[in-house]
Write a structure and sequence with these properties.
The complex is a heterodimer of chains A (about 450) and B (about 110). Chain A has about 450 residues and is mainly α. Helix content of chain A is about 65%, strand content about 0%. Among the domains of chain A are: about 110 residues, Orthogonal Bundle (Rna Polymerase Sigma Factor, Chain: A), CATH 1.10.1740; about 90 residues, Tetratricopeptide repeat domain (Serine Threonine Protein Phosphatase 5, Tetratricopeptide repeat). Chain B has a single domain, classed as Alpha-Beta Plaits. The chains are: A mainly alpha (about 450), B alpha+beta (about 110). At the A-B interface, helix 6 of A face helix 3 of B. Chain B: InterPro entries: Dimeric_a/b-barrel, YCII.
Amino acid sequence: MDEPAATDEPALADEWAADAGSLAEASVESMFREERGRLLASLVRRFGDLDLAEEVASEAIEAALVHWPVDGVPAKPGAWLLTTARRKAVDRLRRDQAYAARLAILQVEADRAGPVPPADADGDLPDERLQLFFTCAHPALPAEDRVALTLRCLAGLTTPEVARAFLVPPATMAQRIVRAKKKIRQARIPFRVPGADELPERLPGVLQVLYSIFTEGYAASSGPQLQRLDLSEEAIRLGRILRRLLPAEREIAGLLALMLLIHARREARTGPDGAIVLLEDQDRGRWDRTMIEEGSALVVAALTGGPPGLYGVQAAIAALHDEAADVTTTDWPQIVALYDVLLALAPSPVIALNRAVAVAMRDGPQAGLALLEELADEPRLRGYAPYPTARADLLHRLGRLPEAAAAYREALDLAGTEPERVHLLRRLESIGTPGPDGA
Amino acid sequence: MKYMLLINTTAEAAEGCSVEDWMAYGKAMKEAGIWVSGYPLADLTTATAVRVGPDGERTVTDGPFAESREILGGYDVIDVPDLETALDWAARCPGARDGGTVVVRPIADFGI
């Protein structure tokens, strides 16, 4: 771990070497998730077309599955994949000149003769994903397509996984991704990082996409597994790259801080049986102190030198939680004040809901409940499980047990993930009121 | 890559910018060597609509009348490398200000 330039590729190579016999059973998507995004970005920059890049990236990965178990894993798997994919792309364009003309790909020969790109800090290929990020998050694309495309192209998710993240049928998601790629190609949305003057307009879109990847990894909105650490770490890693590339952008520091400060609690967030453990019940000794320190330092960077941003303020709230010894000594007045800042920046019933919970911690459950009741008619909180859950918790604390049980049942009907359901069922049982089936 | 900039204006937008603004915009496009074609359109009240029915009969009507506040006031076709550049030119168009909208549409390419 102390090696100065730990690379992704040797880890991948080790994995292959250690387990070459079970290649057939290995999940190709997950093994190559990391490689795929880098490969795509490099190919897109060279050939300017996402469809062609995806096609030859898949072919190169298939070729690796055939050759690596026989010939051994190459020293630089990423470079091997890119070379293989480029060769396939050049072949394809030579064979199908009409296709080449349609893509207006003129730089094929130049590409073949062109210099090998300089190696990245980790010794293999340079990371060219930033420009792909700006393309995938381009405002000319519908908002829903931006996250879908980024998850597909950069996080390396399969279309069904992206579909699950959005709670839509896979066919619907496939159509959405095809539509987005068609617009990029036909309207010719460029693959490039915006200039300094465009950046303030374009960066929030990329940050939004990153945070969506993080939350997708952190709490899948449905299905049996609550946490998907791989995606959260991918989002954090991409956040670090962004921070390195654009160090003056304080909201990048804010977003990275927020992700780190939430991710620091990952070990304590679920019990051995996979059920959710609430913040107040978590074993804070299992929180990742190094990550908290890094996140807290970034909060300072995010909130210094200009007006506060949405991510910076949310990160400051997360830092107050992470730095407290327990829930009673948490600085709730400061948290309520930060929620007030957030509400001023971006009024939202979800933020108001969180503020009400913080007020309940500061002033008692009755005060929090009164604020929650004010939000009862908010259309955006209808069908949103955290609302009845928060109400149930406060009613529980006030000893209004039948009402609390009713609110827990309401939340149960809305809860998406199995761990959420298990958690709510336990709360319901702790009240000692019969469940909906009369058991 | 050719794009058509459809300049949708409102009454306020039309008042908001001067003839000089439009002339400067047109001159800038021509000097940049990206301008392909384009015209301002006469007032919507001068428009006439033609429809041909299944029996081949021709119907000519006055209009169409504006269904929204914005009406198509003109267009330019420009030839630029990518959408980003087209959007930059659209943003410089006087018709994009004061409540007007410039819609950028790639020209269809049916070549093989």
